Amino acid sequence: VKIVAASSVWLASKLEESPRKARQVIIVFHRMECRREGLPIEHLDLFSKKFSELKMEMSRTERHILKEMGFVCHVEHPHKFISNYLATLETLELRQEAWNLANDSLRTTLCVRFKSEVVACGVVYAAARRFQIPLPENPPWWKAFDAEKSGIDEVCRVLAHLYSLPKAKYIPVCK
């Protein structure tokens, strides 16, 4: 679990705008493990056998993750659509709430299940419902943004379920 987490963070950093070196990810995860285990935080020697093995294992796990994903790892975020949609709907007061919902949607599988346009419409709709701001229904506003009502409803359902869950807690992983 720990090496998959480290490899996932390493891969994610490459896909976003802040690539990190394997060395940086390994050092951070090593420090986190020392803290979790209640051990003194020791310096990980970059020329040690342990570091070399961790780096090789992380690289191997990254390749396995990519293979499982079919090397398809580009995800378009809904954030870039939100401001345009709100400006078109003339409801800019929903911007911060919709943005927050879009951030929280990244904790779910929505970004791989639906097109970004649908997720953006879903978070705009959820924000409008929260603040009780009506959106145009005739014609349906979501049609202009290439979304279906069923997809928007599913985005809202998933977000509602996310907010119903208890706060996340750390669960120790066996060695």
Automatic annotation (TrEMBL):
Endoplasmic reticulum recorded as keyword = no
A GO biological process of this protein is:
cell division
Query: Any idea which GO molecular function terms this record carries?
Result: cyclin-dependent protein serine/threonine kinase regulator activity
Q: Which UniProt keywords apply?
A: Cell cycle, Cell division
InterPro entries according to UniProt: Cyclin-like_dom, Cyclin-like_sf, Cyclin/Ssn8
Q: Where is the Cyclin-like domain?
A: 80-164
Q: Please give the name of this protein.
A: Arginine-rich cyclin 1
Its lineage reads: Eukaryota, Viridiplantae, Streptophyta, Embryophyta, Tracheophyta
